[in-house]
Amino acid sequence: MLAAFLLVRGRFPGRALLDALAHLPLVLPPVVVGWLLLLIFGRNGAVGAWLDAWFGIRLVFTRAGAVLACAVMVFPLMLRAVRLSLEGIDPGLEQAARTLGAGWLDRFVTIVLPLAAPGILVAAVVGFAASLGEFGAVITFAANIPGQTQTLPLAIYTALQSPGGEATAARLSVVAVVLALAGLLLAEALGRRLRVRLGR
């Protein structure tokens, strides 16, 4: 939300570069994103070594690492949804509130946040649905450890590599399709309901 707000309303040098960096996971191969995460958050990485030394936090080959990899990959999708929602807000509403004496926090909480709520909700659900299908970044950064970092796509991949695993892969694929479809339908329904309540 804050990143989208900054990109929509902010006017500062390097804004275009920040925008490009935020959307980079959309165009980079997922394996490259996973490798970059290894460089940054690995035990010898700049951030990873610091987290390990000061807090004892290790992300590589852990469940938290799998979550991080998924979050990085779906971040551009979520950012785009929230950004489009923010861009659809009439600036005149905030200007009117400002003339009535409302501070920036009041304007954000009472005008921007409620009007952007459909986009935020859609971003959350679509982000969850998209993360269910993440493969490359997760297997590169968090590996494929059953019961720890094995996600649904990795479980399907493992089943397909095992003799006679086609039936298991088929069942897991059905689960993946159902979850993704349910997430998309839920996002659409909730977004429509919020828009109706907001009179949009």
UniProtKB/TrEMBL annotation:
Transmembrane segments: 21-41, 53-79, 108-130, 169-190
Domain ABC transmembrane type-1 span(s) in chain numbering: 1-187
InterPro entries for the chain: MetI-like, MetI-like_sf, ModB_ABC
Any one Pfam family match given in the protein's UniProt record, by short name: BPD_transp_1
PROSITE patterns, A to Z: ABC_TM1
Cellular component GO terms held in the UniProt record: plasma membrane
Subcellular location: Cell inner membrane; Cell membrane
Recorded GO MF terms: molybdate ion transmembrane transporter activity
Topological type in the membrane: Multi-pass membrane protein
Keywords: Cell inner membrane, Cell membrane, Membrane, Molybdenum, Transmembrane, Transmembrane helix, Transport
Protein's job: Part of the binding-protein-dependent transport system for molybdenum; probably responsible for the translocation of the substrate across the membrane.
Protein family (similarity comment): Belongs to the binding-protein-dependent transport system permease family. CysTW subfamily.
Name of the protein in its database record: Molybdenum transport system permease
Organism: Acidisphaera rubrifaciens HS-AP3
